[in-house]
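Readers of this paper often ask what the protein records in our data store actually look like. The remainder of this section carries one protein's record, kept here as part of the documentation.

:::
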Amino acid sequence: MRKATKKIDTELARYTLLNTGVVTVKYHPGIDINIEVARQVVVDRKAFVEGKASPILSDIRGMKFAGDPKTRAYFQSKEAREGVLAGAMLVDSVFTSYLANLFLRVSYKKQSFPVKVFNDEHAALEWLEQYAL
């Protein structure tokens, strides 16, 4: 049974470490991902996990999605990918799923870890758990 072992709320998201080793990131409603937000989310995630690599579930339901070139380039950077063993995006609509898959194809051309889009949280967590240390 999955249980939260650690939680923190920031201005942008709620971070939860599960007993399975998966970290969930639930963005607050209406957050618009741009370069500044992307950088802060990475800083917050790294501080939350205290340097430990882990699979990450990004719950982007209810979030505004911007895919400007600077933000995409940042998510491709070594700095942004550091400490991520696998990544899953949780979406709530077919349109968001399409955008998320497009974002992943463009942003993660040279994937250093597995990434996948889900509309079911349980399925996403099960998939991520195979990558937990």
